[in-house]
């Protein structure tokens, strides 16, 4: 068996193109340009690269991109104040706090300073609760992008056994909630799960989000499984043994070029959504 690749590049491009049309319509008809403010603390090279990429994609989507850059020694209180100022700014429709932040900062406190109506990255407790209860709100961008990718490839979720390997509050946990909302039977696993292989062997759908290179071995996968690798490690290596998965699974996302483009596309789409909700009182 040789798996089919689930590339997110083409689908993400389509989403961004639609965002550009919607953003242009908002500007031409109402004089409103959707605006995304990105907060970057410190100068971590990977974070700087990600922010630059997101700003470039924002420009392609007709979204005004604002960068708030803070020094690495910024305190939690200073970061919270900066985020709250953006939450209070009517010219800003979406807020993205680039993570991870420096270790001395309380990241959760900073996330919670984002107004729910501007949480286009889906990182607040309000957004998580909305996902869990099926209420209106913004999805965590990576899980939301994964669902869009699965839909685009015709992957049936209802009644399927899904294993999410990872439990972070902005990826693993919301991923499980979105799968559950689509009637999948969800099992959460993680780096300390005993006999992970037995869970993987029963999984129709595997989402890898544990942050360890090639943590999931191809030979442990159920033949014909759908494998989504949401990990990214140095050297363009995901959380899944890619070569092994290609031999055993039916569908596999590449790293890079799979989940990553979808994350950014959903972020931009939700920024346009946020602008429309303010303009039309939705």
From TrEMBL:
CDD domains: NAD_bind_m-THF_DH_Cyclohyd (cd01080). NADP(+) binds at residues 166-168. The lineage of its organism: Bacteria, Bacillati, Actinomycetota, Actinomycetes, Kitasatosporales. Pfam families: THF_DHG_CYH, THF_DHG_CYH_C. It comes from Streptacidiphilus cavernicola. Residues 6-121 form the Tetrahydrofolate dehydrogenase/cyclohydrolase catalytic domain. Homodimer. InterPro entries: Aminoacid_DH-like_N_sf, NAD(P)-bd_dom_sf, THF_DH/CycHdrlase, THF_DH/CycHdrlase_cat_dom, THF_DH/CycHdrlase_CS, THF_DH/CycHdrlase_NAD-bd_dom. Pathway: One-carbon metabolism; tetrahydrofolate interconversion. SUPFAM superfamilies: Aminoacid dehydrogenase-like, N-terminal domain, NAD(P)-binding Rossmann-fold domains. Keywords: Amino-acid biosynthesis, Histidine biosynthesis, Hydrolase, Methionine biosynthesis, Multifunctional enzyme, NADP, One-carbon metabolism, Oxidoreductase, Purine biosynthesis. Belongs to the tetrahydrofolate dehydrogenase/cyclohydrolase family. PROSITE patterns: THF_DHG_CYH_2 (PS00767). Residues 140-277 form the Tetrahydrofolate dehydrogenase/cyclohydrolase NAD(P)-binding domain. Catalyzes the oxidation of 5,10-methylenetetrahydrofolate to 5,10-methenyltetrahydrofolate and then the hydrolysis of 5,10-methenyltetrahydrofolate to 10-formyltetrahydrofolate. Its EC number is 1.5.1.5, 3.5.4.9. PANTHER family: C-1-TETRAHYDROFOLATE SYNTHASE, CYTOPLASMIC (PTHR48099:SF5), C-1-TETRAHYDROFOLATE SYNTHASE, CYTOPLASMIC-RELATED (PTHR48099). This is Bifunctional protein FolD. Gene3D superfamilies: Leucine Dehydrogenase, chain A, domain 1, NAD(P)-binding Rossmann-like Domain. It comes from the Bacteria. It catalyses: (6R)-5,10-methenyltetrahydrofolate + H2O = (6R)-10-formyltetrahydrofolate + H(+); (6R)-5,10-methylene-5,6,7,8-tetrahydrofolate + NADP(+) = (6R)-5,10-methenyltetrahydrofolate + NADPH. The gene is folD.
